[in-house]
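# step 3/5: fold
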Amino acid sequence: MDTAPGSYEMDYDKLAAAITDKTKAIVPVDLGGVVCDYDKIFTVVEAKKDLFKPANAIQKAMGRLAVVADCAHALGAQWKGKMAGNIADFSSFSFHAVKNFTTAEGGCATWKPIPGIDDEEIYKTYQLLSLHGQNKDALAKTKLGAWEYDIKGCYYKCNMTDIMAAMGLVQLKRYPGLLKRRQEIIEKYNAGLKDAGVEVLCHYGEDFQSSGHLYLVRLLGHDAEYRNAFIEKMAEKGVATNVHYKPLPMHTAYKNMGFDIADYPNAYNQFANEITLPLHTRLTDEDVDFVIDCFLKTQKDLL
């Protein structure tokens, strides 16, 4: 499904039409740390319950499509008084090295209780999926006489090491301060670019608060060629920028599966003139001023 016009989120108005009797889940993406509109998503999910055909015990207990949130950017974000991770049915967070909160690699998963399903069952399923399908972890196998284990399926190797988890525990203590600094930087960018004729992702509002992961800027009225030239000029001035993200149908693997970016015009349009400015807690106020100054000068250079 395409994104909504002018939005980094899915097209909620087209969501219902995209659901068939084969659909099992909806995967919203909280891009840049801004939480999606889950009221709209759950309204559609409830309206489509009659189409739903469960394929396992968990799906049968839910009785509807699962809402599985991609919260890779959203740790610490809030929406209508709820924290990311406690909104969707299932949520996945990334603690990759470039994320706000990092353990170098790894992440975590959360879920909301499902009536009729034991949380322990879900927990054990996550364990199996993340550790080669083994029904015992290394610690359990060190107990006296407990060497025996089973492989329940050919799954993945996604478990976090104890060393990484120790890093995460320290990060948790620092995280409120990191979120506060990100908000300060975003507000400084907003003030510096308010008359620059650009559109920036809104991170803070009356009923939501972002984790401030990415500072996304749209160069209004311009195309991908201009955007690419803009990135080069910024680099010449000493500022590294990025693009978030190149739509999947433009990548070879997805082209080979038959996806065509022509079928996703809104996704292409939001990508074509987007540029992402530096946003991390090692930036000083002087660094942010420098980025803003370079941005405004680059606009003049490309007139």
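# step 4/5: annotate
The longest strand covers residues 66-70.
# step 5/5: archive (pending)
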